[in-house]
Specification:
The chain is an alpha/beta fold. It has ten helices and 13 strands. The strands form three sheets. It has a six-stranded mixed sheet, with helices on both faces. Strands 11-12-10-13 form a four-stranded antiparallel sheet, with no helix packed on it. A three-stranded antiparallel sheet has the order 2-1-4, covered by helices on one side. A hairpin with a 2-residue loop joins strand 1 and strand 2.
Length: 357
């Protein structure tokens, strides 16, 4: 059996320039069927360009790209019919009802899912007969997801899919994504929510300055599983740092009565500290043991703007969040390369409305 038979997306040596600016500089990654790939990076890093090339909205300058066995640059109907896309903002006729919007979109596909089924899947059953214009921001995002799923796609691109969701709605949407993957569908997710990437992704790819700077499972990304662990607690009343059984060579940081230790392996240190406290009848208030979070690793890989550094992938004279050579998203929600925002690229109508770059 071909070991690559389950590869949904294959990218090797991908490059794309806008004039003299090289936005994507030799990117490589693979996504397998049923997986969630989280594509992370600061604004201007090359994420949007990469995703648009995968979707068929942009042509590449160099490299090999295969999506569901097709070259997306050829923009074939066979590929478009298997792909669903949720953009950051989608424009839907505000006077249509939720059900009408879903049924209108479903007419573009040979074997769509039913509008009631999709409405239930995305949590809009109670709003099927409500007009789009009265939906809340979170409900409109649910509709965007429903419109992407109505064609029964094998591959779904989700661009900031939970923007505007409350915490409960976000977690419900995560369950929807997990359910899609359980059915064998593949998801490419771009998000600025690190907890979302942690919860959903099988693989995280971090892009900075047009290059992949790290990739792997979220729990091990960038050596996260081997990074220093922080042990933090408050000193018991009347106890000094010198009385604590601290590891040899450790340098505790003390501020306002709180002790913080940074250790490669906290197991023995925590054992000694808690044993010491129990033997003395003391407690260690606020004792926590925390390894680096995905956000910590992300900031270390891409540069922390709060530390005064320049975010990798940005160039002087560009608007944050845009790629040179493209227009930024407008308040009308148009996709930078589409002539009709929110129109799914899986149909002939979309092919007419989405010109080649």
């Amino acid at each position: 059996m071909d070991p690559r038979g389950d590869v949904t997306i294959s990218v090797a040596g991908l490059r794309k320039s806008y004039g003299s600016f090289e936005a994507v500089r030799g990117i490589d990654f693979e996504v397998r069927r049923g997986e969630v790939l989280a594509l992370l990076g600061p604004n201007g890093a090359g994420k949007t360009t990469t995703v648009e090339i995968l979707e068929g909205y942009r042509t590449r300058d160099a490299g090999q790209v295969e999506v569901l066995g097709f070259d997306p640059a050829r923009r074939t109907r066979a590929l478009r019919s298997k792909v669903g896309i949720v953009l950051q903002e989608c424009a839907v006729d505000p006077f249509l009802t939720v059900r009408e919007a879903l049924e209108q979109r479903s007419a573009l596909y040979a074997a769509p899912r039913s509008a009631p089924e999709i409405a239930e899947l995305v949590g809009l059953s109670a709003k099927e007969h409500a007009r789009v214009k009265v939906l809340s921001g979170g409900q409109q995002r649910r509709l965007d997801l429903g419109l992407a799923l109505i064609g029964n796609p094998e591959l779904i691109f989700l661009d900031e899919p939970t923007t505007g969701f409350d915490p409960s709605a976000r977690r419900e949407s995560w369950e929807v994504v997990r359910g899609l993957c359980a059915e064998g569908r593949t998801v490419v997710l771009t998000t600025h929510y690190m907890d979302e990437a942690q919860a959903l992704a099988d693989t995280v790819v971090v892009i900075a300055a047009g290059q992949v700077v790290a990739s792997g499972p979220p729990d091990t990304l960038g050596g996260r599983d081997h990074g220093e662990t922080t042990v933090r607690f408050s000193l018991p009343p009347g106890v000094t740092v010198g009385e604590l059984p601290l590891p040899d060579g450790s340098v505790p940081v003390v501020a306002g009565g709180t002790v913080e230790l940074h250790l490669a392996d906290p197991t023995a240190a925590v054992h000694d500290l808690t044993g010491w406290a129990l033997a003395r009848g003391e407690i260690l208030p606020g004792l926590t043991v925390v390894r680096p979070s995905l956000e910590d690793i992300y900031l270390a890989l891409t540069g922390d703007p709060a530390a005064g550094g320049t975010t990798p992938g940005t160039t002087p004279g560009t608007t944050p969040g845009t790629t040179p050579g493209t227009a930024p998203l407008t308040s009308g929600g148009a996709h930078p390369t589409s002539g009709g925002a929110g129109v799914h690229p899986g149909a002939d109508r979309a092919a007419a409305e989405v010109p080649d770059p």
